Amino acid sequence: MITSIPRSAGSLLVLLGASLMSAGCSTPSPPGGVPVGEVDAEMRVQREAIERVLADHRPQAAAIGIIRGGYLYREYYFGQEREGVAVNAASRFEVASVSKMIATETFLRMVAAGDASLDMKLADYWTDPDLAGDPRLEMLAARHVLTHKTGFPNWRFFRADGKLAFEADPGARYGYSGEGFQYLFRALEHKTGLTYPQMVERYLLVPLGIDDAVVGFEDQVGPAMVWNRTPEGAWLRPDCRPGFCWPAGDWSAAGGLKISLEDLARILISVGSADGYDDALAEERDRIVTDRGTEATVDCALAPTQCPLAQGYGLGMLRVDGPQSRWIGHEGGDWSQLTLAVIDRTDGDGIVVLLAGPMEQDVGLMSDLLELIDPDNPWTVRFAQWQAQIAEDR
Fold it and tell me: Which of 384, 387, 310, 330 is nearest to 104 (CA)?
């Protein structure tokens, strides 16, 4: 069983500008009985290599967590939360679509508690006004949301009419959809009487001892928040984009979560161990049922020798299987974030990378970091392919 590491443990390295300095946290016992001196030497080499990569790319902010055997084993921090404030272990990053992993884990724990069902018909609890009268509502179930087979667009504002609509029958085909996650939790709000942030708190955060993640959108910026910075250098508070801010009191189950690296690692480790529900539900979660087609984690046509045995969506999370690995987690990207949180269920090894800054610029940084830290990770191939595509398009 994978268990989370106490908050006071772990090797903490804070990278400020191009320099490194150690912070006073204790180091857990090295895995595999490796002598402490050898671990310290290897750690120095790794942090110097990470420092060089970060110095080459100069992101606004970065937090990197390495998980071994179900423990958050190392942490590295770089850059600024906002002008004059260095990133540290308390810094809360906006994690973009990694938020979907948190929404999924919340929902699965609700299923385990008997408060929700994978096959619950969402029309029994709520109907979006844009869809009123559409007979396909009778087909739409929670399972379609988690497997990205709702038939919805990613977001309604991408449509010419700005309205939510079925572009395919529920269950018919894959279509990545943030709208689907919104729809599911709107229905659950009507079913349970709880807001989405209250659901996340009750079913996930409180059981894991997490008390400072921010799930909804706020009008006041709390401490230790990583702000957004435009390419022109202007600082925007969290929940804002150039020309737009999310209304205070609103929420998104598809993006917008603000959380520290340590707390996100705590959730990822719990996902890896599936300790929030029984083995039957974990097996259902892990069953790969959705082929993502051209959005696959690894484009096997470009990397046939690195092609996974299986890849796609299980329930709400990305799954990639190799000969001796079973990866689960999620990635996220928005105009000023690029994030990754994945763990191998076979050995409890994983990685969390939170980057703030222009997303396209950070793809190369993510690629270089993964190649340095975990070259056999399938997302190393994924981000290298993405970076190559960016270079080709320029």
Answer: 330
The per-residue pLDDT of the chain, averaged, comes to 91
Task: Please compute, for residue 199, the number of CA atoms within 13 A of its CA located in the half-sphere on the CB side.
Answer: 29
User: C-alpha angle with apex 210: 346 to 109, nearest 5 degrees?
Assistant: 60
Closest residue by Cα to residue 24 from 34, 14, 37, 33: 14
Residues 6 or more apart from 152 whose CB is under 8 A from it? 164, 165, 166, 167, 175, 177, 179, 180, 183
Calpha distance 66→68 (Å, rounded) = 7
Closest CA to 12 of 84, 86, 81, 83: 86
Contacts of 88 (CB under 8 A, 6+ apart): 14, 23, 77, 224
Q: Which amino acid is at 367?
A: S
Helices (H) and strands (E) in the chain, counts: 9, 16
Beta carbons within 10 angstroms of residue 79's beta carbon: 22
**Interatomic CA distance for residues 228 and 244, integer angstroms:** 12
337, pLDDT greater than 90 = yes
**pLDDT tens digits for 11-63?**
334 443 333 322 323 334 445 555 656 667 888 899 999 999 999 999 999 99
pTM across the whole model: 0.91
Beta strands of the chain (E only): which ranges? 11-16, 19-22, 61-68, 71-82, 85-86, 92-94, 228-229, 235-236, 240-241, 244-245, 258-260, 310-313, 318-322, 325-334, 337-344, 350-356
**Cα–Cα distance between 378 and 75 in angstroms, integer?**
21
For the chain, the helix, strand and coil percentages under 3-state DSSP, each to the nearest 5: 35, 25, 40
Token pair for 59 = 């992101």
Structure tokens at 330: 């999620």
Q: How long a stretch of residues is the chain?
A: 394
Helices (H), 68-177: 99-112, 142-146
pLDDT band for 237, please (50, 70, 90 cuts).
very high
CA dihedral 34, 35, 40, 42 (to 10 degrees): -40
Structure tokens at 181: 């996650």
